[in-house]
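Record DNA-binding transcriptional regulator, LysR family, 303 aa.
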Amino acid sequence: MLENLRAMGVFACVVERGSFSGAAKDLGITTSAVSQQIRSLEIELNVTLLHRSTRKISMTEAGQAFFQSCQEMMAAAERGKIRISELQDDLIGELRLATSPELASLHIVPALSRWMMAHETLKVNIMASEQYLNLIDERIDVAVRMSQHISDDDFEVYPMARVQQVLIASPSYISQRGNIEHPHDLLNHQLLPVDLMKKFSKLKFHNDSTNETVELEMPVKIRTNNVFVMKTLCMEGHGIGRILHLDAQKDLKHGNFVEVLPDWKLPEYTLYAVTLKREQQPVKVIRCIETLKSYFSQLPGGR
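=>
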């Protein structure tokens, strides 16, 4: 089939140029190669497409009908080429973005809201999942992920922000249980982790003022894979939440939670935009990442 399509293009070029040699010159192949393509096509179709003479060529009746089909094929191919160019250069088509439900709700939608409104021809599919989606299987254009480090030769990785972890508790919990002054005091409390974090119950603290480092493992009775659920558990007094400052800053500002051990820092995370490696990224992907980077650069990820 592919060979026939190639031969149809050669046939159309011969008719348009009026000669085998003219077609050969345009196509960058030999005249004999052009002749062979036409001959193979005629054998395949079991018709004569061209009348040949020493002075000129002309189409047979079958050739005229077939030439129309070839023109339609060439026009369709050109439209496809234009469409691909548009998808690469303009903000059209579909953009598939994957991230966690928390990041999607709290940050990705606010970050991209005006941008999405400004590009009416661009369809956007925000896929929110607690698990990392496979970029190839799900045809993901951009994934927004939080990690201490991402290293994969199949990905292009764009750091967007550094984000601190914090421990939080409800004001009523602290008033009932008393102040927590040192990391070792945490051994008397229950940790409410979001268990998507690796080794979620193990905590490593560093105090910049004293240069002291403390590592410990907190007791865990209740855990969840969702930040919103963890916040509710924390608000109900079930323990101390481990959360990214990015996801807690509004609640801390409004007094819904208080930060536990503010002088002791947990390891930081980096927020990344991740795409598959391509020789040339579509403009919609580039513009999306630029918009996200602009948003997160203005958002304090730490205290």
